[in-house]
Amino acid sequence: MHGKLDLNLFVVLRAVYDHGSITKAANALHITQPAVSHALGRLREKFDDPLFIRHGRQVVPTPFCQGIIASVVKSIETLESTLKGEVSFDISDKSRQINLGLRDILESIFFPELIPELVKHTPNITVNSRQVTWPELAPALAAKELDIVIDALVPTSRDIRSHFICEETFVVVCAPSNSYVDNPSIKSYSVAQHALVSLKDSKLDTVDLALAQHNLHRNIALQCEHYFAAVNVVSQCDLLLTMPTRFAQQFSNKFDIEILPLPFDVPPLPVHMYWHKHADEDLVNVWMRNKLLEVSNKLEL
Asked: Does residue 96 sit in helix, strand or coil?
């Protein structure tokens, strides 16, 4: 790394990435907007990449920024933990229900690794999980209805902390008999009928945003809240289902399906872990966040 590059620039980068806004990042860091813009300018010059692109009132990370942010966040947190020092903590004498906000896809990925270990080693810790829409995320964390949420990157207030977990990519799932298999083009995709998995009031859909760049849209014949039901349906009829790659692979041995790449580019969807600032020093919450990160690293998410 160039000797004159200020490491504090990466703190600014993380703040803008977490908040999706230069103004909110400046407020969180207690510095001015011009200072944030200047820091980004230096990093843009260093990496020869814009890092963020304005989208309405938000700024969206570029593919290059998405590719380096995990390393940036990990490095910053390693330095911060070194300065704080380790705290002695024995989870075995704690009794607590931890409330998680996870979609069904994330439950199926995290729980087979997480829950058997908890049952064996920390039976005093119990887990309650439910799905949460993005408008509910911050209020539920603030009200302590939820302790931790793992979901797609969404705009949040300065009171909500977040940590990058992984990126979701997408594929098309359909029955082997579906005519789309023989002609997996963007035109065939746009004229086909689709199943859509989406929570009530959820406004995030990177697939439709990417498709709109081609002045096309999906014809939705079924909308539901669970991928298991949707995959079961599309395996038996001519609907297409666009879903996260890892989850689709889990279904490949359960249903007679074809898994195909999308016929157009869709940016990977960043997935973050969220918690409220009042839980920063809650050692049980810290312990569970670390367990979830361990599972994420073990599964190479």
From this structure: strand
**208/213 Cα distance (integer angstroms):** 9
What is the sign of the dihedral through the CA atoms of 280, 285, 288 and 292? Answer: negative
- Cα gap 73→13, rounded to integer Å: 9
**CATH 3.40.190.10 for domain 170-261:** yes
Q: pLDDT tens digit string along 5-17?
A: 788 899 999 999 9
Distance CA(251)–CA(258), nearest Å, equals 10
**What CA–CA distance (Å, rounded) separates 296 from 301?**
5
pLDDT band per the 50, 70, 90 thresholds, residue 1: very low
Domain boundaries, the chain: 8-84, 92-166+269-298, 170-261
Distance CA 278, CA 141 (A): 9
8-84: CATH number: 1.10.10.10
Cβ atoms of residues 153 and 269 within 8 Å: yes
Topology alike, domains 8-84 and 92-166+269-298: no
Fold of the domain spanning 92-166+269-298: D-Maltodextrin-Binding Protein; domain 2 (3.40.190)
Give per-residue pLDDT as tens, 265-295: 998 888 999 999 999 888 899 999 999 999 9
Task: Give the SS3 label for residue 165.
Answer: strand
Closest by CA to 203, choosing from 50, 54, 58, is 58
Other Cβ atoms closer than 10 A to 139:
12
20 torsion bin: left (phi>0), alpha (psi -120 to 50), beta (else):
left
